[in-house]
């Protein structure tokens, strides 16, 4: 099943639970369009980072919101696609920020 059809299923399930996903849908559709354009078959941290870098310059809160939306989709997707993995994006050495921003998260330890 394509990522676009998986996104349709994801949005339908979340909406049936009462979530308003207008913003998430716009962001996720752009992400899936990027994935399709690059030939990606699975959602992973590198795909997200490439997509995020291709987006217009944004503040940290916008980038964080994008990450949250894609991570939730990837978590849902992991129930049907074992290759979908966004957990590595929590690692401080994976972020795009400056060295000072990366060291601010250096105390984080994965369970």
Question: Can you walk me through this structure?
Answer:
This protein is mostly helical and 111 residues long. The protein has one domain. It is globular, with a radius of gyration of 14 Å. The C terminus is likely disordered.
Q: What's the structural blueprint in terms of helices and strands?
A:
Layout: H1 3-16, H2 22-38, H3 45-54, H4 60-77, H5 99-104
Helix pairs in contact: 1-2, 2-4
Task: Sum this structure up briefly.
By secondary structure, the protein is mainly alpha-helical. The protein is built from 5 helices and no strands. The model is unreliable at 94-111 (pLDDT under 50).
Helix content: 55-70%
Which percent band covers the strand fraction? under 5%
Q: How does the helix and strand content classify structurally?
A: mainly alpha
Report how far apart the termini are. 32 Å
Low-confidence stretches: 94-111
Give the tally of β-strands.
0
Rg over alpha carbons: 14 Å
Keywords:
5 helices; single chain; disordered C terminus; mainly alpha; globular; 111 residues
């Amino acid at each position: 099943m394509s990522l676009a059809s998986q996104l349709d299923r994801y949005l339908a399930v979340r909406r049936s639970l009462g979530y308003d996903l207008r913003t998430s849908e716009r962001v996720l559709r752009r992400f899936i369009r990027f994935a399709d354009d690059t030939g990606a078959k699975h959602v992973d941290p590198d795909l997200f980072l490439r997509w995020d870098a291709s987006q217009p310059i944004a503040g940290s809160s916008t980038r964080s919101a994008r990450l949250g939306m894609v991570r939730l989709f990837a978590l849902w997707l992991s129930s049907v696609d074992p290759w979908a993995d966004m957990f590595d994006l929590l690692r401080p050495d994976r972020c795009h920020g400056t060295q000072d921003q990366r060291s601010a998260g250096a105390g984080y330890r994965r369970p």
